[in-house]
Amino acid sequence: MILDMQRFLAQERPYWNELDALLTRMQEGAGDTLSLEDVQRLYYLYRRAASDLARLRGHVAEVELQQYLETLVARAYGEIHEVRVRQYIRPVHFLRVQFPVTVRRYSRALFLSCLIFGVGAVCGGFLTFLDAENKRYMVPEQFAHILDDPSQRVAEEEAVEYDHLAGGRAYFSTYLM
């Protein structure tokens, strides 16, 4: 690819200078946050500089310019893909500050979810009270034996002859646990 170096430099250098100035501003003002427009502009300038670096790779004569662009692109990459130190949850701070703030912030949603849960529980309890057969719809089939009368279940269990050495009662008590 033939590249008019003078025109290329005149056209692209203002973007490199802008990227350099933005990166310097970010590094000097550690902790300052960028606006959305600044972040988008940083990303645009980074992509443009990386593209320019790729265009220069074929030109051996421009080694210093390539090194400058490599450094600039590396700095921008480091800022864009920075890995922040993970902050650990402090339990006391969470319980005293963050949890109450979150509960207050989402109190309407919390109230609504508790209301829906409570209405469902009351309706289920009421329907079970009205018709005891409704229990069968709420209890999984594998636990249907708990719906029977407890004294009847005990009588059935005692009527069965167990060989104590076979561990029938031990097996049954383990099953219950």
Description:
The protein is built from eight helices and no strands. The longest helix is centred in the first third of the chain and has 24 residues, at 5-28. The chain has helices at 5-28, 36-56, 63-80, 91-105, 107-130, 135-138, 150-159, 168-176. The chain is an all-alpha fold and 177 residues long. Helix 1 (5-28) packs across helix 2, helix 1 packs parallel to helix 3 (63-80) and helix 2 (36-56) packs antiparallel against helix 3.
**Anisotropy-based shape:** elongated
- β-strand percent reads under 5%
Helix content: over 70%
Reading the helices and strands in chain order gives: HHHHHHHH
**Number of helix segments?**
8
End-to-end separation: 78 Å
Count of beta strands: 0
Give a summary of the structure in a few sentences:
This protein has 177 residues and is mostly helical.
Layout of secondary structure:
Layout: H1 5-28, H2 36-56, H3 63-80, H4 91-105, H5 107-130, H6 135-138, H7 150-159, H8 168-176
Descriptive terms for the model:
177 residues; mainly alpha; elongated
